Amino acid sequence: MDICKADRKWFGLMESDPASFSRQWYPALAAIQTECLQRAARAITRMRTLGPAQESGQAMTGTTNRYLCLTGDQLKTPSASRS
User: What would the pLDDT profile of 57-78 be if each residue is shown by its tens digit?
Assistant: First the structure.
């Protein structure tokens, strides 16, 4: 609901054309959720490699390293979500 409230076009589309809303909403929602998860992974990776948790995070760098240098404009892109 917060996402709908942030962009009021979704409520209008939901009321005027439910089928079009469904076709557009779920891909948009997936993109927003993907971006949020990538931001969280980037933050945790940076904390464990560059920040205060370096010592305990070195064992995990192989798993999370692809998120370390991810820039804000790379979030949600296919290259950012694949290994």
Answer: 566 556 666 666 667 777 665 5
Full domain range(s) for residue 44? 2-81
Residue type, 37: L
Label residues 27-45 b or e (16+ Cβ within 10 Å = b): eeeeeeeebeebeebbebb
Cα distances (Å, whole numbers) of residue 5 to 8, 9, 10, 25, 67: 6, 9, 8, 13, 30
pTM over 0.70: no
28: nearest Cα among 12, 41, 9, 44:
9
State the total domains in the chain.
Answer: 1
Contact 60, 44 (CB under 8 A): no
Tell me the angle at which helices 9-16 and 18-49 cross, rounded to the nearest 10 degrees: 150
